[in-house]
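Lecture 7 notes. Example A: sequence first, then its structure tokens.
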Amino acid sequence: MSWLVETHRRLWSSGIRSSPFLHSSLDFSFTSSSNLCSYARLRLATPSTTFVDVTTTGSYTPRTVPERSSRTTAAMAQTFQNKSFVLNSVNNVAFEDRPIPTLTNPTDVLIEIKQTGICGSDVHYCTHGAIGPFILRAPMVLGHESAGIISQVGPAVKTLKVGDRVALEPGVPCRHCPRCKGGHYNLCVDMKFAATPPYDGTLAKYYVLPEDFCVPLPSNVSLEEGALMEPLSVGVHIARQASIKPGESVVVFGAGPIGLLVGAVARAFGAGKIVIVDINEERLNFAAKFVQGAGIYIPQKGLSAAENAAALLKAHNLPETGVDVAVDASGATPSIQTSIYVLRTGGTYVQAGMGAPEIQFPIVEMCAKELTVKGSFRYAEGDYRLAVELVASGKVDVKQLITGRVKFEDAEEAFEAVKNGKGIKTLIAGPE
């Protein structure tokens, strides 16, 4: 903080030494790039019309701003009580105090956020500023895997009350298009999804949702587990897309959070043999414990996709003809290719992971086997409530996925850890 001392000296020597400045409170807001604070604004919080911008080099530029009345200042103090974790640009995050969101519709509810998980998409926006057509063009609050407590309800809300604990389904569709009316609202082209540009996310003290996108949590499901209903719902949707039936053999490529949850849901759906595939041995060892009775497989270097598929089947005493269901939750091209070769004729393949926009795909193998090939995107009608039921009934234990818990003020460090591949699922507590 030597630059602050130097700035104080310059202010004094330049004649800015009257008590309204030097005895005022100091308000710092930091903008971060990686783990370093690159810029700080020193705001001299007085009724004066001048404040000073101070850079880390010690230079300053007095600027004039409109004078606020004491009434306006008091109103600001009452309104700005919504601490938020904001992505300003690539690798540039900051904590901000934003207005508490208002209920704009009679069926809206205000939720006090208590727990939020870090998703790979959050990290991707931090490092790249875009996912496909969704491009960060303005500051955006991060986060979408959240649970909280109802703080306020609109006049037409019938199913929730203040104090209820809920998991947040963070995407609100238009409700009117053919996809919405058909129950596939995850495909709505007018979807307003949290932490997807231009919409703010849930890493804040408060967030507003319609009541029917808040799923009540049973008494035996914690708020931490509630935050993990979002990724679990993704796993539920993938398993439903695959139409997994009791006794069927399933191979899941990718032992990240989604791949693990797909395996767990497949087990809950009654699948027979389950094999999890990854190149990370540590994650595979965890997968073998998390998905009861699951086998694991590390692809062998130097083998083709067809050869690795054959080796996998042999290693786990599966029929040479292949398995019933294959899911790719990695987005890696070799995994996608191997998935097609590991399936039996008439099998089902679901693409869940998003990787390169275009890849080399074994289309002849797919056609010759007459495979059912599906994509999977987020979650749709019934997925969230089924996810809650799976946890409440003990069929899926999401608590095992939690490898980190941090306070809200440590959110940036938590993002850095996830960016570096540490842990499986990190939870950020809501602002106090």
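Example B, a different protein, same format:
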Amino acid sequence: MNNQSYIKPEINKEHPRIKNRTPDEQKYRDDLAQVLKANRQLGDVGRQAARVVLENESKSPEYISAKENIPEDLAKDILEYILHSEEPEDLKIDRILEKSKGVSHKKIAKLLIEKGNNHAVYALAENLEKFEGLDSETAKLLTEKGYGSVVINNLKKFEKLDSETVELLIKEVREAE
């Protein structure tokens, strides 16, 4: 066993994800970090409590915004818009993309899949041709939601699919035959 003490990595305050946070986002992150640190110091039970807190917080618009650098009001607006759409056809992906200028399509797609309802995932799948720069994670999430055939038909929208996602897509094709 190594007797060297643990050296805490230094935080790069110039990193774009940190540098572009609003003061409210930074305060939220700092407050959450304090709660998690306090819980972890309580031993096994505290670490378990910290995991539960983090799991619950990871679903909040504030957490998504602070983590993904999607402006908080934009994330809330998109999630509220999704919530009030009664039918998948009511969701206008063009409206979401227009309001989200400057935010990567990958982040918007991930928000729709992970935090949106079934209508949001359906609308994303039906409008995949309007998105650019999607990644392997997005392809995997869509495939797991039952939209693997849409991913296959829009492969050029995805950059660098990893082997796990490719295997998942192959399995999807075989099951469809």
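Note on Example B: The chain has two domains: 20-57, 71-176. The two ends are 53 Å apart (CA to CA).
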